[in-house]
């Protein structure tokens, strides 16, 4: 299995090389050169398997010969050992044909743990056998950063720097990133929004002297392994509702487009998915794009679902690559145009996108009202991101079962949940003392040179 860049001008890599490389050297994102499929019988057989067994079957052909079967099974087992639910990703029923996939039973209470715990194990295995060390720099709107820190804290051969937008993450998210006291963890509060954090991260990857000098690695969804790990729960949840003998639809609260792109990969692998619905908050660039065919940045307005406050949706580039018939030059041209604020998508590419994706947008009031209504109707307490998904999922109900992804635990956003339903959700026992812990954080400017200098100095001090 080889991996190619969405901009068509970077070396082809193996799974392990692509994982350790992060952003392609032409600025694009790595994708598999072809998508392996599972037969109906193979999908049906997932029904009797544990989450870990299903994960092995779904991901095996993407990793090629990077690991033996036994090595890969061990990596998967270690990745999910500290989840707090036996099913890992349990499905609960909200209404007769609407189900919620709870993805918040991992160590940091967000869906990011599914991929980050796996990536943590993959990196440890690969770095140890290569005898290498890396510098991970991550950009976060709140959840990716805490999941990355949890997955890599305390490791000798990894430094992890997390850029988060100062004042724009919840208190719990910030504490998750600033209270670990491991010497290899560096929380950086950037003066800007998430798009600035992600842009500076990509700038670092495009500065080859810096990139090669610190041996930069990425664990954002820039990294294909992040997307791959998320494909698994589309299969396990759909199978538990009767796939492949019955179609299912999914609604996915969306920001950087990684999670829903994993659903698209599941569909291409043969999972019978009817609709994949993009759910956005008031930062609705993806919904506007699906409606108008123009991808136009408008600036980010902070919302009560802060992890989705994103305008430059990184993985949309992977969807565009397919929609343009895998024409890397066309994608590179669109990304060049985006530097001036917008690009128009061709009619053919829009048709391809609309064949696979529907979309909806949810206001702040609607998000709060959904938290309140679902608690009253079925007792499920939703985080604001999941509520955005459920609201859009309700608008797209049909005879096909709808699965909405619950992407974070409500206790990560207690103020928004309490304001909506009058009760404050409590943290699980293993995090109960988090708010009392001391924080370690450095305020940083939105400036590439200053960030690179700081990172180099910190590495030199270790
Ligand atoms: C809680 C939560 N929900 C939804 C999303 C959106 O996921 P994606 O960026 O993969 O679209 C994020 C962040 O990415 C998140 O942290
Ligand atoms: N919502 C994310 C944003 C980073 O996106 P990713 O797709 O690179 O993980 C977050 O919580 O940080």
UniProtKB/TrEMBL annotation:
Gene Ontology molecular function: any one: pyridoxal phosphate binding
Residues modified as N6-(pyridoxal phosphate)lysine: 112
Cofactor(s) recorded in Swiss-Prot or TrEMBL: pyridoxal 5'-phosphate
GO biological process: threonine biosynthetic process
Residue ranges of domain Tryptophan synthase beta chain-like PALP in the record: 99-332
Taxonomic superkingdom: Bacteria
Pfam family, one: THR4_C
Segments passing through the bilayer: none
Domain Threonine synthase N-terminal: 2-80
Catalysed reaction equations from the record: O-phospho-L-homoserine + H2O = L-threonine + phosphate
Keyword line: Amino-acid biosynthesis, Lyase, Pyridoxal phosphate, Threonine biosynthesis
InterPro entries: Ser/Thr_deHydtase_PyrdxlP-BS (IPR000634), Thr_synth_N (IPR029144), Thr_synth_N_sf (IPR037158), Thr_synthase-like (IPR004450), Threonine_Synthase (IPR051166), TrpB-like_PALP (IPR001926), TrpB-like_PALP_sf (IPR036052)
EC annotation from Swiss-Prot or TrEMBL: 4.2.3.1
Protein name: Threonine synthase
């Amino acid at each position: 299995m080889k991996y190619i860049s969405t901009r068509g001008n970077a070396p082809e890599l193996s799974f392990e090389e692509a994982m350790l490389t992060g952003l392609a050297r032409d600025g694009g994102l790595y994708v598999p050169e072809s998508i392996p499929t599972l037969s109906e019988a193979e999908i049906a057989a997932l029904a009797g398997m544990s989450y870990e067994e299903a994960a092995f079957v779904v991901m095996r052909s993407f990793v090629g010969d990077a690991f033996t079967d036994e090595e890969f099974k061990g990596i998967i087992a270690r990745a999910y050992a500290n989840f707090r639910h036996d099913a890992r990703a349990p499905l609960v029923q909200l209404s007769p044909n609407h189900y919620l996939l709870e993805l918040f039973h991992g160590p940091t209470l967000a869906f990011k743990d599914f991929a980050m715990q796996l990536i943590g194990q993959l990196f440890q295995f690969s770095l140890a056998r290569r005898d290498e060390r890396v510098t991970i720099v991550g950009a976060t709107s709140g959840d990716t950063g805490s999941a990355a820190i949890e997955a890599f804290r305390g490791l000798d051969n990894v430094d992890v720097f997390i850029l988060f937008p100062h004042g724009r993450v919840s208190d719990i998210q910030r504490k998750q990133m600033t209270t670990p006291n491991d010497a290899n963890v560096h929380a950086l509060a950037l003066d800007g929004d998430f798009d600035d954090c992600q842009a500076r991260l990509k700038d670092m990857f495009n500065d080859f002297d810096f990139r090669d000098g610190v041996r930069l690695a990425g664990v954002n969804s820039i990294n294909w392994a992040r997307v791959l790990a998320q494909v698994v729960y589309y299969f396990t949840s759909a199978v538990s509702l009767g796939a492949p003998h019955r179609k299912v639809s999914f609604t996915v609260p969306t920001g950087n487009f990684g999670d829903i792109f994993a659903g698209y990969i599941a569909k291409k692998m043969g999972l019978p998915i009817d609709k994949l619905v993009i759910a956005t908050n008031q930062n609705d660039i993806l919904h506007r794009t699906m409606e108008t065919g123009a991808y136009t940045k408008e600036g980010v307005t902070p919302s009560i679902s802060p992890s989705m406050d994103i305008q430059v949706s990184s993985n949309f580039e992977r969807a565009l690559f397919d929609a343009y018939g895998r024409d890397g030059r066309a994608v590179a041209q669109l990304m060049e145009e985006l530097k001036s604020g917008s690009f128009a998508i061709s009619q053919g590419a829009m048709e391809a996108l609309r064949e696979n994706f529907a979309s909806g947008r949810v206001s702040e009031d609607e998000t709060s009202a959904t938290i309140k209504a679902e608690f009253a109707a079925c007792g499920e307490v939703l985080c604001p991101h999941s509520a955005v998904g459920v609201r859009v999922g309700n608008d797209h109900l049909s005879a096909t079962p709808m699965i909405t992804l619950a992407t974070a635990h409500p206790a990560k956003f207690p103020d928004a949940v309490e304001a909506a339903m009058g009760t404050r959700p409590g943290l699980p026992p293993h995090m109960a003392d988090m708010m009392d812990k001391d924080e370690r954080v450095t305020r940083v400017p939105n400036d590439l040179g200053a960030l690179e200098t700081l990172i180099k100095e910190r590495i030199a001090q270790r």
